[in-house]
Specification:
Oligomer: single chain
Number of helices: 5
Order of helices and strands: HEEEEHHEHH
Distance between the termini: 46 Å
Number of strands: 5
Largest sheet: 5 strands, mixed
Helix content: 25-40%
């Protein structure tokens, strides 16, 4: 017998079942939001929460590594762009998990999820006017920070070398 395909578990379960124990029962008073960013086939899920220590340093980790270790430097600057635009958020820890796509697409998805998570955190736990100012400044700088790019790779067709090319 052939196995029938089974339904996939929800995205949050796949990403965070082992790496983050942030169930409601274990951390009931932690302020946190979870957001998703996409680029091509890459998906990044960011958890933005308060630091454990008051007046502590903020931390950004992508796939378990601090953002300071992202290589090359140009892509590190791209990932940290939201903080250059809206300013460093002093008491936020952001952890990003990525999957699918290539390494550059994963970093662009992480960049988008970081920006969306800071906006969502400010909206949920602070005032709406600050959120609107942040959102407007991010969109004025680069719309891709908050809005996913809908373009996808077109599949190759028969009778040619690519999606559109045909034999002549």
């Amino acid at each position: 017998g052939r196995k029938l395909p089974t339904a996939h578990p929800p995205l949050s379960f796949v990403f965070f079942s082992r790496s983050f124990n942030m169930a409601k029962g274990k951390f009931p008073n932690v302020k946190r939001v979870m957001t998703c960013g996409k680029k091509k086939k890459a998906i990044a899920v960011a958890i933005c929460r308060e630091t454990a220590v008051k007046n502590g340093r903020s931390m950004v980790k992508v796939d378990g590594r601090p953002a300071a270790f992202i290589q090359p430097d140009g892509l590190r600057a791209k990932v940290l762009e939201p903080f250059l635009i809206i300013g460093k958020q002093p008491n936020l820890d952001i952890r990003v998990k990525t999957r699918g796509g290539g390494c550059v697409a994963q970093l662009y998805a992480a960049r988008q999820s970081i920006a969306k998570s800071v906006i969502a955190y400010v909206q949920k736990y602070h005032d709406e006017s600050t959120k609107i100012e942040m959102k407007d400044s991010l969109i004025a700088y680069d719309r891709q920070l908050l809005v996913a790019d809908p373009r996808r790779v077109e599949p190759k067709k028969f009778g040619g070398h690519g999606a559109r090319a045909r034999r002549t």
